[in-house]
């Protein structure tokens, strides 16, 4: 019996032993061990591939066992391991993880989910030796705890396993994105230098730009409210260009989630931006499916921005379902065959008009909405959801005298300096995603700041969640001035961005 290792993912990552035996009997190839349709189909694919490479099948019955047998297995990445066991039936095989799909010409291909499988493998096995398709090798080499060996076709497979030329195929390259990384507190970061969408295009709206700076640095949630054409979407779409550098772990996680969405996402300097339409279903936004738990927009936005334009037009079910991912920074998806938890640490940006017609804030245009229509429109967003918004911005009305102010490059530099100050403090999470127990450690108030906050709490009857939001925003404001403690001016600035309804 010969054995190699592979991986599969159902409810969680499973380490699979791929075993083979050659016994007397009618020539046949069979796979046992709860293999799904994709693996069953690999029988004919492997046969055709090996025959096209002039391989003569032995006159034996070949049985492939995927162990443990009680765990369902899925994915075409088992092809390569099965083919290696057949090709090297008389060879002593060292312990390797082997993954890859076979082409009929003998080439070794990657699959959409392969990168995420490798990432999760690195968390379970230290210094795993893994054979991967060459097309994904450079990306896979960025994952910690893995020794990557890159193969392109079955001829190289024979050279690797039969002639033991391991060093020849061991990957020692570095992905171009990580050639000159930024090192902060022994952690690798990649800074964005792309400013395709520039804040210089946003005329006026200084309060909105300040809110974008705060949201970018602290990963805070923002609600822009204003007339059509005032610049709400422009600000939201430019936010990712000024956000702090991504860590290596964030880049890897972003790619892992994209691969779970059947997308081959390349490493990028810029954080992810997701913009679902208001007609999107709950399953597409939060994940789900009939049997298996599929990843949704809230998880795909992890580490970046999730933008809901025309916020009140989303279904009530979708809006209320935001409570868990915004509060816990996680989402749990449960189905009959799978239960999965995804991280949802993103900056949630919402935009809405002040009324159904959009002219309520206008000094020149007439609002044609009745009080009942405005009230009905506003109440689509419940108080618990509004309580999870860190920053509220009433957009200024567009004026012909408005001028451009800060560019994305200038704003990015401001965020970066404050981010470095934050990291030197020893803080690992963004201010907006701090846990309540960390507030006492990082959100130290001066006496005048504490008195101001106490006065605001007594006057406006803030909830405990709202108080914590104010502290987190004030901490971000203090980081821009590189202040170790939160001062009165920082509390006042944080209070100025609270939802106006709370001040009535």
From TrEMBL:
Residues 407-498 form the Mg chelatase-related protein C-terminal domain. Pfam families: ChlI, Mg_chelatase, Mg_chelatase_C. Residues 198-401 form the Magnesium chelatase ChlI-like catalytic domain. Transmembrane segments: none annotated. Signal peptide: none annotated. One of its GO terms (molecular function) is ATP binding. This is Mg chelatase-related protein. It comes from Campylobacter cuniculorum DSM 23162 = LMG 24588.
């Amino acid at each position: 019996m010969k054995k190699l290792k592979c991986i599969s993912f159902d409810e969680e990552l499973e380490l699979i032993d791929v075993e083979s035996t050659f016994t007397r009997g009618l020539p046949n190839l069979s796979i046992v061990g709860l293999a799904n349709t994709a693996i069953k189909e690999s029988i004919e694919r492997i046969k055709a591939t090996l025959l096209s490479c002039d391989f003569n099948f032995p006159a034996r019955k070949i049985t492939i066992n995927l162990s443990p047998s009680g765990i369902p297995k899925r994915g075409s990445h088992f092809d390569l391991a099965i083919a290696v066991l057949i090709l090297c039936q008389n060879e002593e095989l060292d312990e390797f993880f082997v993954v890859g799909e076979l082409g009929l010409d003998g080439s070794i291909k990657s699959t959409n989910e392969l990168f995420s499988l490798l990432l999760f493998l690195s968390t379970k096995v230290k210094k795993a030796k893994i054979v991967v398709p060459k097309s994904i090798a450079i990306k896979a080499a960025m994952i910690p705890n893995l020794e990557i060996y890159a193969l392109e076709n079955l001829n190289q497979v024979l050279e690797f396993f039969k002639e033991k030329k391991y060093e020849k195929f061991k990957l020692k390259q570095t992905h171009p994105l990580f050639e000159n990384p930024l090192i902060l507190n022994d952690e690798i970061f990649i800074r964005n230098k792309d400013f395709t969408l520039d804040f210089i295009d946003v005329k006026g709206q200084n309060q909105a730009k300040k809110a974008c700076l705060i949201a970018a640095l602290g990963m805070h949630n923002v609600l822009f409210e204003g007339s059509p054409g005032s610049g709400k979407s422009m600000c939201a779409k430019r936010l990712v260009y000024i956000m702090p550098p991504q860590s290596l772990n964030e880049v890897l996680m972003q790619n892992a989630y994209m691969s779970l969405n059947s997308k081959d996402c390349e490493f990028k300097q810029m954080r992810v931006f997701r913009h679902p339409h208001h007609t999107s279903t709950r399953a597409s936004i939060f994940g789900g499916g009939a049997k298996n738990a599929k990843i949704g927009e809230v998880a795909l936005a992890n580490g970046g921005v999730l933008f809901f334009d025309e916020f009140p037009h989303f279904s009530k079910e979708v809006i209320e379902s935001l409570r868990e991912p915004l509060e816990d920074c996680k989402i749990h998806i449960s189905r009959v065959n799978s239960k999965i938890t995804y991280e949802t640490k993103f900056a949630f940006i919402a935009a809405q008009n002040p009324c159904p017609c959009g002219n309520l804030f206008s000094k020149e245009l007439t609002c044609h909405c009745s009080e009942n229509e405005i009230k009905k429109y506003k109440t689509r967003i419940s108080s618990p959801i509004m309580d999870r918004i860190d920053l509220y911005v009433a957009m200024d009305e567009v004026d012909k005298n408005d001028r451009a102010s800060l560019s994305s490059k200038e704003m990015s530099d401001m965020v970066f300096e404050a981010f470095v100050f934050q990291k030197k403090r020893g803080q690992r999470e963004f201010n907006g995603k701090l846990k309540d127990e960390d507030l006492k450690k990082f959100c130290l108030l001066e006496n005048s700041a504490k008195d101001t906050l106490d006065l605001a709490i007594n006057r406006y009857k803030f909830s405990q969640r709202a108080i914590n939001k104010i502290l987190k925003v004030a901490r971000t404001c203090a980081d821009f001035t590189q202040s170790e403690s939160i001062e009165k001016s920082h509390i006042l600035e944080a209070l100025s961005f609270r939802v106006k309804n709370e001040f009535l």
